[in-house]
Amino acid sequence: MNRTHAVLAVSLLSTALAASATAQGTAPVANATVPPGANTSDPSAPFYIDLTGLDLQTMPPTRDPTNSNYPPATELPDGAVPPRRGSGNFIIGPTHTAAPETAERPDRPKGQVHSFTLTSADSVIYKPGRVREESSLNATVYTAPTAPGDPSNLIITSSHAGSWTRTVTVYVPPGYSPGTEAPLLVAGDGDLPLPTAGQQLFTVLDNLIAEHRIPPVVAVTIGSGGQDAQGSERGREYDEVSGTYADWVESEVLPAVEQKVGIRLTRDPNARATMGISSSGAAAFTMAWFRPDLYRRVLAYSPTFVNQQWPHDPALPGGAWEYHSPWAGPARPNLVASGFTPPALTDASTGSPLVPNSPRKPIRFWFEVGDHDLFYPAVPLADGMHDWVLANENMARALAAKRYQYQFVFARNASHVDGPTTLQTLPTALEWVWAGYPQPVK
């Protein structure tokens, strides 16, 4: 597929997805109120929901980034973005103007774009897929009951085996020399009309590569397996806390990319990055966490470091929440000490939460959350583990305590995977993620 055809395809895909979303229902949004009957008063009791700094008068609720329960952050002037070489916690906004690198420059060389499809019939790891029966988008999730006495365990009975077809789009940088190994960027949710997938991302890469601010990377954007959240193929792939998705990309997607596009991809983990939004943002981190031998650079917008893993895993009942914070439910036996090591803990960690209790890994991580980000979008899940802002603040604290190389951005006047914020920050975020990698000679 040439560049003109690729632009047309992305445009048509965006239109189709927008129409599909309208037909099926709205995307997940934050609630305006605390789930009925939730524990908001006793931090020592199970499933406590922390309301510190939460303004319930706004729609959706907003968080004060300076409240005492969050790690300290540097507040930048409105319109500014974090420095390209700085680390730590930053507050930006409320004005989000698109960075100049997001606009096409006629004088800049353009990368080539190729697309192909994968199906579950040809898969080994994700065959069959998962399909959730429902009348509108996420209706089943919003109305499903939870296990008796356990609001963390959503019961989905309409999920069953099914098939999937997805698009893989490959950006090959200008000047790529056939036969040479190229640095790699893998992006999830490549089928969504977002700045982090498709034409907008490729334009940013064109500009940054031309300015020698990042290496000439090959970008592989991968569509999800379909639907969203618990019981879906997308949720199965992105929200599971394991190395399965990274193994699938390595064994099934990248070999197809090399064969169909005629390129070679590096196996050097320092020359490989992952990227995603929401659940695919959490998956981007999970890929590096379980396979640091493959990936060591990560970029994520509104990553879902909350309890979304499904089916419910009794060995890690908090899902991705347990990267940074303890399980919020009743006390349970120490599964590691009792001789049973859950799959999530087989990487030399000593137990949950994973980041605080594991040796520091060679991961460089940039991530963002908005003050209007998701807050308990599924009312039944009043489990103390579905506040996206709190989850990401806790993640920043855990990374700082372990002295990781990270940059965390709290964006004012920004919703879940906020488009204007993404267009404002994506160029410098990519540059920060690739810092320290040898640059091409000007």
Set down the secondary structure blueprint.
Elements: H1 3-24, E1 54-55, E2 62-63, E3 74-75, E4 88-92, E5 112-119, E6 129-132, H2 139-143, E7 146-147, E8 150-154, E9 159-162, E10 165-172, E11 181-182, E12 184-187, H3 199-210, E13 218-222, H4 233-239, H5 244-261, E14 264-265, E15 272-277, H6 279-290, E16 297-301, E17 364-372, H7 388-401, E18 405-415, H8 419-433
Helix pairs in contact: 4-6
Pfam family, one: Esterase
Keywords: Hydrolase, Signal
Signal peptide: 1-23
Task: Tell me the domain tally.
Answer: 1
Q: Given the C-alpha coordinates, what overall shape results?
A: globular
Radius of gyration: 21 Å
| Total helical elements | 8
The CATH architecture classification is 3-Layer(aba) Sandwich
Class computed from helices, strands and strand pairing = alpha/beta
Q: Quick one: how many beta strands?
A: 18
Average of pLDDT: 89
Termini Cα gap: 29 Å
* CATH level 1 class label: Alpha Beta
Q: Which segments are poorly predicted (pLDDT under 50) over 5 or more consecutive residues?
A: 1-27
Task: Describe the strand arrangement of the main beta sheet, using strand numbers.
Answer: 3-4-18-17-16-15-12-13-10-5
- Written as H for each helix and E for each strand, in order along the chain, the element string is HEEEEEEHEEEEEEHEHHEEHEEHEH
Helix content: 10-25%
The CATH superfamily name is Alpha/Beta hydrolase fold, catalytic domain
Largest sheet: 10 strands, mixed
Q: In what range is the share of β-strand residues?
A: 15-25%
Query: What do we call the CATH topology?
Result: Rossmann fold
Signal peptide: 1-23
Region (Disordered): 58-80
GO molecular function: hydrolase activity
Protein name: Alpha/beta hydrolase-fold protein
